[in-house]
Design brief:
The complex is a heterodimer. Chain A is mainly alpha-helical. Chain B folds into 2 domains: about 50 residues; about 90 residues, no CATH class. In chain B, helix 1 runs antiparallel to helix 2, helix 5 packs antiparallel against helix 6 and helix 6 crosses helix 7. Chain B is flat. Chain B starts with a helix and ends with a helix. Classes of the chains: A mainly alpha, B mainly alpha. At the A-B interface, helix 8, strand 2, helix 9, helix 17 and helix 18 of A face helix 1, helix 2, helix 3, helix 4 and helix 5 of B.
């Protein structure tokens, strides 16, 4: 652990931590660009670095990107990332009262606090979860994967049938290439390029980056968008900020805990988290604050929970190989490109690397807080960048990034195919997230299911494993609740 | 939208069916898992299609960005289509004209299509970007890019500077 701490404090590590946070904040602050997109675009750049520095930089981009979204949400009421909608409600109302610097500083402080708590959870919970996961056999893995797919399909607001269809399409896509157990070629149509299946990063760049380039291009052409001017008031005092910390310690703690917990769950990303934390704080509100109209507590709850969700989503990623959010899913692609297999063995085989990342992630959150507190108004300058230029450069980076993975035009084709598929499915109202999760976990599910069916003599043998039983039971309960909720909602509509 | 949904779902069914036909060429042990998935994709697509026809499909609002795009006037959509076409042709241009020329042309065209205020500055920025990335790819990232006449000239220049 100490070796990791020293490695995370080396000049190179500090440089990539700062660089990652700055890139993240810039991307997050620009409406339309998300943390997921930033991570996907910068995965090829990490080839230049060692695996730990690459991970730290992507961690910085992730944390910075999520915080960056609040800058535009507060200043112009346009959330830089979808996660900042709630921050926009409270922060923009404060900005209209001339308290923009206080709102920005509070956002930075809350993000930093939430991020730090989640980084500590990452540091201490991941090894625990990893050691537990070492006891996992194929039955436990299958049960866990089934649980992950269920949580994603039942918790998304889109219709259940479409979520399931998305999940199956994603799983089917992973069967293209060589069979993981027998090595037989499947659906390759004689193409050598298809033997290894679709490159994960190229697919994710298509899903998240090129599609955004198309929408940004449209936004740049659409002159009906109102452009608002950015106004700053007087700077926030340290006393004001400290007062919020002293008077609302439980808000910080509750919202961060909610963020970490929801981050660990595969389906609940930073977008949904602030709504839940905001609702919880509204219930605990004893100050007569008007939530949704410039409430300091609401802003703290939102920002704390979003940032805490980031660290939380990395816990199952590193300990189990299961991403807790879309951005974490792209993170997996980066790890595999560096020859690392996320899962319980990773912390055993690469302890220095993982602890370097953990400590680096703590540093990243500190830098994020500092940059947010002292430089948010300077980062706001990126809001003036023309969308035409952004769309163009995202398009070119998407293509060059896909090409750079294997120096192959085939991957560029895969990226375009994924873009087309994402746009088509969006029009069909089929969500992308279940496909992403399925594309990432499909191989693992097939491998574990094959081993389970060949090694288990009967269903009773599988059911004798308590961890697997626990996951199966939760899965069945969730399906039951989901069906009941949907039936109730249907009846209420009728 | 109903026709679009039905045709799309039918296309998914057809795609899955094509893969289903391919499974006969796969070794028996390797085809069980994909066969199950193909079955599930077909069944769920058909179920959604039937519900759509019966008017009982659970509705979700269309993605707001996509809805705005679909409502946009035709000239705007045409420009966007041209933007997409420019980037789809770009990989072909890379292979035939080399990195610098293809990238400069693609960026300039893209900026022009998106009505950037100062197109000349756009072209200059595109050229600067292409040359800078060409150097970066050659000297730092060591990613071989397709070579055109300009790229070869730059390579020779870089070689001369190094030696």
């Amino acid at each position: 652990m100490l070796e990791g701490l020293f490695a995370a404090m080396s000049p190179t590590s500090l440089f990539v931590e700062i660089l990652g946070v700055i890139i993240g904040i810039i991307f997050g602050a620009i409406p339309g660009l998300t943390a997921t997109l930033a991570i996907a675009l910068f995965v090829p750049v990490t080839f230049l670095m060692s695996a730990e520095h690459g991970m730290i930089m992507l961690g910085g981009i992730y944390a910075g990107g999520i915080f960056g979204g609040s800058i535009s949400a507060i200043l112009i009421n346009v959330p830089g990332t979808p996660a900042s909608i709630v921050t926009g409600w409270e922060g923009y109302a404060m900005a209209r009262e001339g308290k923009a610097p206080l709102a920005l500083s509070l956002a930075a402080l809350s993000s930093g606090m939430g991020g730090l708590l989640s980084a500590l959870a990452l540091l201490f919970l991941t090894p625990l979860l990893s050691s537990l996961a070492l006891k996992f056999g194929p039955a436990e893995y299958c049960a866990l994967l089934l649980f992950s797919f269920t949580i994603v399909t039942v918790m998304m607001e889109t219709p259940l049938m479409r979520n399931l269809l998305a999940c199956f399409i994603g799983l089917l896509l992973t069967t293209i290439g060589l069979d993981p157990v027998t090595g037989a070629a499947r659906f390759t149509f004689g193409s050598v390029d298809l033997m290894s299946g679709f490159n994960l990063v190229a697919v994710l760049v298509g899903f998240f980056c090129m599609t955004e380039a198309v929408f940004l291009a449209f936004d740049s052409l659409d002159t009906s968008n109102n452009k608002e001017t950015i106004k700053f008031g007087k700077g926030a005092s340290v006393k004001e900020l400290m007062q919020t910390l002293i008077t609302r310690p439980m808000t910080y703690l509750r919202s961060s805990t909610i963020g970490v917990f929801l981050g660990i769950l595969p389906a609940v990303g930073p977008v949904e988290t602030p709504f839940i934390a905001h609702t919880v704080e509204r219930r605990f509100n004893r100050r007569d604050e008007k939530f949704g109209k410039g409430s300091i507590t609401g802003l703290i709850a939102s920002e704390c929970s979003i940032s805490a969700n980031v660290g939380g989503s990395l816990i199952p990623l590193i300990s189990l190989g299961i991403p807790g959010s879309g951005a974490a899913a792209v993170f997996i692609g980066a790890l595999t490109l560096h020859g690392l297999q996320p899962g319980p063995l990773l912390i055993q085989s690469e302890p220095v690397l993982i602890y370097t990342f953990f400590w680096g992630f703590i540093a990243v959150n500190l830098f994020m807080m500092l940059f947010g507190l002292f430089g948010a108004r300077y980062f706001a300058a990126v809001l003036k960048l023309p969308k035409a230029a952004l769309a163009t450069f995202i398009a070119v980076f998407s293509i060059l990034g896909s090409y750079a993975i294997n120096n192959s035009m085939f991957d560029v084709g895969v990226m375009f195919g994924a873009t087309g598929l994402a746009l088509w499915l969006r029009a069909l109202r089929v969500p992308i997230l279940p496909i992403v999760l399925a594309v990432i976990l499909g191989h693992l599910l097939e491998q574990q299911a094959s081993v389970l069916f060949t090694t288990s003599a009967s269903v009773a043998e599988v059911l004798r494993r308590p961890i697997a039983d626990g996951f199966f039971a939760i899965t069945i309960l969730m399906i039951g609740f989901s069906i009941a909720n949907r039936l109730r909602a249907g009846r209420a509509k009728a | 939208m109903l026709y679009f949904n039905l045709i799309s779902l039918l296309l998914i069914v057809c795609g899955a069916a094509v893969l289903g036909l391919q499974t006969s060429h796969i070794a028996e042990t390797a085809r069980v898992y994909p066969s199950i998935l193909i079955g599930l994709v077909i069944v769920f697509s058909l179920l959604i299609a039937v519900k759509e026809v019966a008017g009982r499909a659970a509705t979700a609002p269309l993605d707001s960005q996509l809805a705005k795009l679909l409502r946009a006037p035709s000239p705007l959509r045409l420009r966007l289509l041209a933007f997409c076409a420019a980037w789809l042709i770009y990989p072909w241009g890379l292979s035939n004209a080399g990195f610098i020329v293809a990238t400069t042309c693609a960026i300039s065209l893209s900026l022009w299509l998106l009505k950037i205020r100062r197109p000349l500055i756009g072209v200059l920025a595109a050229l600067l970007f292409s040359v800078a990335f060409s150097i970066l790819f050659a000297t730092v990232l060591f990613i071989p890019t397709p070579l055109g006449p300009l790229d070869e000239m730059l390579s020779r220049l870089l070689f001369a500077i190094h030696h």
